[in-house]
Design a protein that fits this description.
Blueprint: H1 15-42, H2 46-58, H3 63-70, H4 74-86, E1 90-95, E2 98-106, H5 108-129, H6 134-160
Antiparallel strand pairs: 1-2
InterPro entries: ArsR-like_HTH, HTH_MarR-typ, MarR/SlyA-like, WH-like_DNA-bd_sf, WH_DNA-bd_sf
Domain HTH marR-type: 17-149
Protein name: MarR family transcriptional regulator
């Protein structure tokens, strides 16, 4: 099991810890490739696709809020929104609470074009989840949340460098 690209002290990990790190890297790489393929089918790049995913899950947000959610810069988000709008997946609309602000909303027709691409993987994920007890799922959920928080923190560090 290679710990290549990890600090040298990772070589001192147990066999199980090394296997977990290997599978996490494998999962990350396959997720990127899967979403790249989905993005191509949608006529988008992977970053735009994942930003659209954030929008579909959160509902209307400002560009600044989307930047915070994704960890991307506001300049990058402006370009993402431009491309998503041009492709017909989002619209810019006036904020109902502050007419000076603009919110970005996903377009229902765009979401309808995406949903069929995820049917199979959603069903497969539910089958996997159903194999675990609530206690095991809570442990997995905690682990994934900590990984997500760590990844966002690492993104913020990279932006500051």
């Amino acid at each position: 099991m290679s710990t290549e690209n990890f600090p040298s002290d990772f070589a001192n990990l147990s066999s199980l810890q090394q296997k977990l790190l290997h599978e996490l890297r494998q999962n990350s790489a396959r997720a990127v490739m899967f979403h790249q393929l989905i993005s191509e089918k949608m006529g988008l790049n992977a970053t735009d696709h994942k930003c659209l995913d954030f929008l579909n899950r959160t509902g209307p947000v400002t560009a600044g809020q989307l930047a915070q959610l994704t960890g991307l810069t506001t300049g990058a988000i402006t370009s993402v929104i431009d491309r998503l709008e041009q492709a017909g997946y989002v619209i810019r609309d006036k904020d109902p609470n502050d007419r000076r602000r603009v919110v970005v909303k996903s377009v229902p027709e765009g979401a309808a074009r995406i949903s069929p691409l995820f049917q199979s993987v959603a069903q497969s994920t539910l089958q996997i989840i159903s194999q675990y007890t609530d206690e095991e799922l809570q442990l997995i959920l905690n682990f994934i949340r900590q990984c997500n928080d760590m990844t966002l923190a690492e993104m913020n560090k990279l932006k500051e460098e």
